[in-house]
């Protein structure tokens, strides 16, 4: 079996690991299940022929996310020239598969409730904040990778991320509970 | 809760593991005496923990995974066929030059 063929199989295996992340990113950008699926499929269609040519040290994940974003931007540009019909299906109570991690039923219930709250909070953010939260908190991309993906300076990544987190903290105040005890601690230190 | 003004950017870089070298040690020393920065970090950690527990934010449907895998398999088998054909040509089919001999 040729080295090139082996590399292709290896690259394919690595790239399929990112399908949930890519789908999440597509959902964050489009807010529509059908469009998100098309976007992910198109991303792989474009990526597959180039897979075997990637060097070992290539950051396949960042590269796939970049392709997806470019496909989305191209679609947006095309749509601007044609009639616009935007359909979002985020608030229709659509179900999302959750992996059972072996927790007991109460824990599963609590974690599902939290997941719902997290998704609802993220959906309330503007696109640029949804995007940066997904890339950093869910996909763990570095500032450098995010800056290159969004085509902006690292400083913009940093400030946008700070604002997005701050907005999310307010939206998730019912489950982010550390704030109160923290403030008390800071107040006490100030009195000393 | 915000980190103290002087260290707010450093606190974020530290939290996101984007701070390198000497500033890391400097900030750790600062943290020992600054409740505001400790608090800001704890809040960031808690938010991050809650978000990361919800990973993946959305699961790709099985049908999509199947379509992508099929596309990959098709592309791999095309590539393999190309490789096998080129092997056969180079090993067994005499080149034009050799046939002419």
Can you tell me about this structure?
The complex is a heterodimer of chains A (192) and B (101). Chain A is mostly helical. Chain A has two domains: 3-81, Rna Polymerase Sigma Factor, Chain: A; 105-191, Orthogonal Bundle (Arc Repressor Mutant, subunit A), CATH 1.10.10. Chain A has helices at 3-16, 19-30, 33-51, 60-81, 105-124, 127-138, 143-150, 154-171, 178-191. The N and C termini of chain A lie far apart (72 Å). Chain B has two domains: 5-53, no CATH class; 62-94. Chain B starts with 7 loop residues before the first helix and ends with a helix. Chains A and B meet through helix 1, helix 2, helix 3, helix 5 and helix 6 of A and helix 1, helix 3 and helix 4 of B.
Helix/strand layout:
The complex is a heterodimer of chains A (192) and B (101).
Chain A: H1 3-16, H2 19-30, H3 33-51, H4 60-81, H5 105-124, H6 127-138, H7 143-150, H8 154-171, H9 178-191
Helix pairs in contact in A: 2-3, 2-4, 2-6, 3-4, 4-7, 6-8, 7-8
Chain B: H1 8-15, H2 22-33, H3 35-53, H4 62-91, H5 96-100
Helix pairs in contact in B: 1-3
Short description:
The complex is a heterodimer of chains A (192) and B (101). Chain A is mostly helical and 192 residues long. Chain A is built from nine helices and no strands.
């Amino acid at each position: 079996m040729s080295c090139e063929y082996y590399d292709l199989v290896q690259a394919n295996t690595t790239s399929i690991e990112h399908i949930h992340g890519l789908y999440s990113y597509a959902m964050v950008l489009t807010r529509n299940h059908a469009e998100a699926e098309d976007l992910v499929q198109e991303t792989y269609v474009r990526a597959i022929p180039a897979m075997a040519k990637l060097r070992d040290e290539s950051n396949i994940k960042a590269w796939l996310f970049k392709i997806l974003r470019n496909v989305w931007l191209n679609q947006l540009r095309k749509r601007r020239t044609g009639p616009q019909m935007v359909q979002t299906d985020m608030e229709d109570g659509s179900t999302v598969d959750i992996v059972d991690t072996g927790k007991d039923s109460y824990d599963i219930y609590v974690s599902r409730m939290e997941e719902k709250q997290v998704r609802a909070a993220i959906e309330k953010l503007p696109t640029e904040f949804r995007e940066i939260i997904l890339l950093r908190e869910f996909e763990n991309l570095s500032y450098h990778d995010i800056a290159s993906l969004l085509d902006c300076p690292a400083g913009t990544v940093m400030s946008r991320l700070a604002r997005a987190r701050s907005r999310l903290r307010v939206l998730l105040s019912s489950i982010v509970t550390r704030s109160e005890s923290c403030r008390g601690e800071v107040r006490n230190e100030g009195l000393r | 809760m915000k980190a103290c003004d002087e260290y707010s950017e450093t606190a974020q870089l530290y939290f996101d593991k984007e701070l390198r070298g000497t500033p890391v040690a400097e900030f750790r020393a600062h943290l020992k005496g600054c409740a505001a920065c400790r608090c800001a970090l704890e809040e960031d950690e808690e938010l991050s923990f809650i978000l990361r527990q919800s990973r993946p934010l959305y699961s790709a449907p099985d049908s999509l995974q199947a379509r992508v895998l099929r596309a990959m398999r098709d592309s791999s088998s095309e590539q393999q066929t190309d490789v096998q054909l080129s092997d056969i040509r180079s090993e067994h089919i005499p080149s034009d030059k050799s046939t002419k001999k």
